[in-house]
Design a protein that fits this description.
By secondary structure, the protein is mainly alpha-helical. It has eight helices and no strands.
């Protein structure tokens, strides 16, 4: 009889937690973590392209030191921030990381723009391959970022809504940071990648 009583109490607690949004909080929290992991994965993919891209450009435009330095420094600043899943639990560190990614986007845009002045560079097979990889990565970043924004919105609504907000407070669930309007302005415009026919080299 005692075992039946324990089972009854356990069942009632389970139903109570479910009705108060506990399961939804858990599910949404896992979705946020998964979405953020994909954002980090795509940003890392982009960072991995940078050294090769800089080296190829340097081979044709070594005197464009300012632009090359900006890209290299932007990548270094990103490396100074620990890109871990825990970033989404630290709004200040999150914003610092996203700001660093915004600087990387701007630096890559300038690098691609500079390449337009060098027909031989534009015609280089390695450079065009890196451009294609960069364009694909930027598109994947945009998709991953959108999924993260949607996941955080669903999670934060649950955390703030009654009665799940009471459950959230009881179990320590807190709202998570997302991309601000300023972040989106900086990140939504990927570097321009031009696959047009290279202009003939000057005689």
């Amino acid at each position: 009889m005692n075992n039946w009583l324990k089972l009854l109490v356990l069942s009632m607690l389970t139903l109570s937690l479910s009705g108060c949004g506990y399961n939804t909080l858990q599910r949404n929290d896992e979705q946020v973590k998964s979405s953020w992991a994909e954002v980090l994965n795509q940003y890392q993919r982009r960072a991995d392209l940078v050294p090769n891209l800089v080296n190829v450009v340097k081979g044709y435009a070594s005197h464009e030191k300012e632009v090359l330095t900006q890209v290299t420094e932007a990548r270094a600043k990103i490396g100074q921030v620990q890109a871990t899943p825990e970033l989404i639990n630290d709004p200040a560190a999150f914003q610092k990381y996203i700001a660093a990614q915004g600087r990387m986007t701007a630096a890559l845009s300038r690098l691609i723009a500079v390449s337009e002045n060098y027909p031989n560079l534009k015609a280089d097979g390695a450079f065009r391959d890196l451009q294609a990889q960069l364009e694909g990565t930027e598109n994947r970043i945009a998709v991953a970022r959108k999924r993260y924004i949607d996941a955080v919105q669903a999670y934060n609504v649950t955390v703030r809504s009654f009665p799940s907000n009471l459950t959230a407070k009881l179990f320590g669930f807190q709202t998570k940071p997302t991309f601000t309007v300023e972040n989106e302005k900086a990140l939504a415009a990927p570097p321009k990648v031009d696959f047009g026919t290279p202009a003939p080299a000057a005689p």
